[in-house]
Amino acid sequence: MDRSPRRYLLALDQGTTSSRAILFDTQTGDGGGRSGLRIAAVAQKEFTQFYPQAGYVEHDAEEIVGSQTEVMSRALRESGVSACEIAAIGITNQRETTVVWDRKTGRPIYNAIVWQCRRTAPQCESMIADGCEKYVRDNTGLRIDAYFSATKVKWLLDNIPGARDRARNGELLFGTVDTWLIWRLTGGKVHATDYTNASRTMLFNIRTMDWDDNILYELGIPRCMLPEVVPSGHIFGTTRLEGADIPIASAVGDQQAALFGQACFEKGEVKNTYGTGCFLLMNMGDEFRLSRQGMLTTLSAGSRPGKPEYVMEGSVFVGGAVVQWLRDELGLISSAAESEYFAAQVPDNGGVVVVPAFTGLGAPHWDMYARGAVFGLTRGAGKNHLVRAALESIAFQSRDVVDAITADTGIPIRTLKVDGGASANNFLMQFQADILNREVIRPSIRETTALGAAYLAGLTCGIWESTDQIRRQWTLDRRFAPAMEKEARTALLHRWHRGVERCRGWQEPAVSAAKAAEAAQTD
Ligand code: ADP
Q1: What is the C-alpha separation between 294 and 116, in angstroms, rounded?
Q2: How much distance in Å is there from the Cα of 274 to the middle of ligand 1?
Q3: Based on CB atoms within 10 Å of each CB, which residue in 231, 290, 390, 445 is the most buried?
Q4: Average pLDDT of span 446-470
């Protein structure tokens, strides 16, 4: 077998709570690539989450770089692979998180403002009051929300003394985490991002494929601080590792990376990632379409200059997090994996429905005042029923997103490719197939985010020539065929939706709660 000296791909997976480095061996098995990639090493390091005020979330941008370079070296050390055996690096990252730094010193002017941070909700409300909603939606594919980078950049320019002037003079640079890492890994030589990350900033026009001057003007953000935007598979520059120069050959936002890692290259192909939340993405090819059901339209890793490719994305806020809740708050299980065992101890949920609307409900229900509840308790309801109902809630929510995306696109979903931590749960995956009445397909490599970045890097540096070759790399772990009777499925869904209805509007908006308290005092 021909053993290339540069046979490895190093994926840097910069997530919200940890940085990971995954080393993939591209030459395994039969040498024809059919047996797929092999993971040669994984190194992971968590970093600090800062919560300076209620609703605020920040990261130390230096700590992000430090943890990422540390795991990179550790993965090499632990595998015994030397840097000169690495063909390329691929980057995948938490999206939307915002860093602004000084072009000369390379120092951030403030902590990174994380996607979860709600500090710019008032700016979003004022953009909506200014009548920007339709324009933003039609041109960025997003809803105006604090989640995206745009208002975070504005907040930094408004709140860090002198920042706006320095930005206008070209002294400050903005980047999402991919851009920040590339800047640092190339020694400050490259200021660039890819289409997928740009499409999550709410500053990028996904129809013209350029930064949107109208939105920049509205927010007072100078264009000169924005990175160049290039395809996800691209030679961004090189980084020096153990004396070797290694090309950085891809950068891609985490969910689009997972879609690519699942080999969903054709229009209509779908994957669902079961992590803390669930992210369902459908490849829409070159068709730009806005959702009527609360999905977002965003760019895929296949986008090229002047040739956008779109995905439709629906998210569930609480996915695997409901299992963490069973473990950490209720103490019903001691590990996430144990949930599978307890759920299987009972033949059904005993009428129990868990609606984990802990932070409201996302697509397609969109109710920020909904709160979680458990319904259908009887004297016989026990721990096993509760655990089972909690797992089922992940599948019910995903089914609601599948229905919404199908209604929006008119594209029937025949099979669902799954990945993410909770996709390891066989009970959950079988129930998902049953409740969807669709086949659920789980790949052997569930690290699809890192895999997507590695595939893109490998395509860019010539390890593979086409996505067809990549598709052949994709290997199956297990298929879950639907096995539930229609009546049973309909009854379960009916009960689930009754639960969802009862959770709606539970949390009173702050104003009416204050009024109620006032009224109680005067009574
Ligand atoms: P993230 O990338 O969002 O941190 P991961 O893909 O690492 O998420 O998945 C972690 C989530 O999956 C956690 O919320 C955890 O509770 C859940 N999880 C992990 N293993 C299992 C399992 N066997 N059964 C159910 N849930 C699981």
Answers
A1: 18
A2: 7
A3: 390
A4: 93
CA of 420 to the centre of ligand 1 (A): 7
**φ, ψ of residue 439 in degrees (nearest 5):** -75, 140
461 CA to centre of ligand 1 in angstroms: 32
- Could you tell me the pTM of the whole model? 0.90
Task: Specify the residue with its C-alpha closest to ligand 1, atom 9.
Answer: 421
The tokens of 9 are what?
């791909």
323 Cα to the center of ligand 1, angstroms: 8
Largest CA distance in the chain: 86
pLDDT at 521 (0 to 100) = 62
Contacts of 437 (CB under 8 A, 6+ apart): 482, 484, 486, 489
CB 124 within 8 A of CB 132: no
**Residue percentage of the chain with pLDDT more than 90:** 77
The protein residue with its alpha carbon nearest to ligand 1, atom 13, reads 320
Buried b (16+ CB within 10 A) or exposed e, 340-373: bebbeebeebbebbbbbbebbbbbbbebeebbbe
Mutate to test the pocket of ligand 1, among 16, 22, 274 (most ligand atoms within 8 A of CB): 274
Cα of 320 vs centre of ligand 1, distance in Å, is 5
Would you state the pLDDT for residue 317?
84
* Cα–Cα distance measured from residue 98 to residue 454, given in angstroms and rounded to the nearest whole number: 24
- pLDDT of res. 190: 97
Tokens representing residue 289 in the block: 């379409």
pLDDT per position as a tens digit, 385-418: 999 999 999 999 999 999 999 999 999 898 999 9
Token pair for 183: 């800047």
Amino acid at 382: G
* Neighbouring residues of 125: CB distance < 8 A, sequence distance ≥ 6: none
CA 438 to chain centre: 23
Tens-place pLDDT, residues 320-344: 999 999 999 999 999 999 999 999 9
Give the residues surrounding ligand 1 with Cβ less than 6 Å away. 15, 275-276, 320-321, 323-324, 336-337, 339-340, 420-422, 424-425
Please name every residue paired with 14 in a beta bridge, in sequence order, or none if there are none: 19, 93
